[in-house]
Design goal:
This is Phosphotransferase. This protein is of the alpha+beta class. It is built from 8 helices and 10 strands. Helix 7 runs antiparallel to helix 8.
Length: 248
Amino acid sequence: MDEVKVVVAHSERATLRVGDVFLKVDADQARIDVEVEAMSLAPVPTPEVLWRKPHVLATAALPGTTLGRLGGPSTASPAAWAAAGAAIRKLHDAPLPPWPGRAGRSIDELTKELADECELLVTNGVLPADLVTRNRQVAEAALRPWTLAFTHGDLQIAHVFVDGDEVTGIIDWSEAGQGDALYDLATFILGHEEHLDDVIAGYGTDIDLDVIRAWSSLRSLLAVRSLIEQGFDPFAPGCEVEMLRSRM
């Protein structure tokens, strides 16, 4: 008998695996609708949608294994990382979806959100002031005009599946939409910057490394408290806080 495996679970959503079927349960039906639409538009391999009902999406498992996970080593080859970079570039070059995404918040919105979150991190004693101040300075380089691209919005390496040196699929599209391509790249290499050259080999060289680093700092600053509230540990080795400390 197939077991029910909890892949991830928190107050907003949960993903379960039963055999070769993934069930995503989301309190926000709009995120499921976005996910299905984004997968239908994305020019890269995505899971097969088996069925969809209110608040639940069923998809087929992808062949292969994830490229890695945040906080853990990746055993994937340089060619696999380059293939992932090429797939990401193909997504970013695709026609825009007709809705804004997580990576598409306005500069004014991000600036206010960053300021508010940095204040909370310090006043609540979550992170030391010098660490927050330094990363806020780094993060400001991301707050500039950008050309909109088709972005995944939550492109963690655990969401990219490979078989050998081939990308077999990308999962979890609920945050997809119009946004800054470099946000996706920053999310993708978070905790694995040693593979950045391989990713660039597949993606192309016309990227600003300072902006990628800025997005890494900005994304991590905004994520720390939320991750703690959801039961995750951003202080674990290779995760968000370690990245923030590397900027000191």
